[in-house]
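Hi support team,

I submitted a single chain yesterday and got back a structure, but I'm not sure I'm reading the token output correctly. Could someone confirm the output below corresponds to the sequence I sent? I've pasted both exactly as they appear in my results page.

Thanks,
R.
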Amino acid sequence: MQDLSPPAGFTATLKATGIGLWLSTNGSSPGFTPRCPNLGSNRPMQALIVVLRLLHIVSGAVWVGAVVFTAFFLMPTIAAAGPGGGAFMREFGKRKIPQFMMSLMAITVLSGLGLMGVIASRSDGTWFSSPMGRVISAGAAIAIIASVYGAVVNRPVGMRMQKLGAEIQGGQPTPAQAAEMQALQAKLRTASQIVAVLLLLAVAAMAAGRYV
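Hi R., thanks for writing in. Yes, this is the structure output for that exact sequence:
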């Protein structure tokens, strides 16, 4: 009978890359021990992890990309528009973009916490004390800080800009309104950049976590 066992270097490659857990047909690759104990034969748990990973990675990619674009490209453009930036923010709000961003944030954070919880429970909590666990946990903490900061600072400022833009609509802003709009734009731009930097740090931790 033909020998169908994998080449000698194949198992080592899977072990080095961590691909074996996901490519195997029966939950475990030959010679490969998953990082999450007792997970290999648990198909429902595997399916849950795959779903959580998809939610976390896809929503996180869109969320972080949108925040970085807003912070470093959109906000400076709005500031350059002067009082007209309020009208832009009003349209921005009408299209439910802030709500969409908040939804992405919630999906990313909750799916990430769920994924950490599942993996930690399968390792009896020892995962958190591993180098990978510590780095991923640090990234998660940074992302949560960014989320809270964005919700507490960015959202109220954006809502005030929308309201002020509606008051100015179709007319010439008073000196007080123009000054307030400029102050709001500067505050939102700075806050958005802080959130963007924090999220990029979180992404860096997530990307490097499994290799430490």
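A quick pointer for reading it: Residues 1-34 form one domain. Let us know if anything else looks off.

Best,
Support desk
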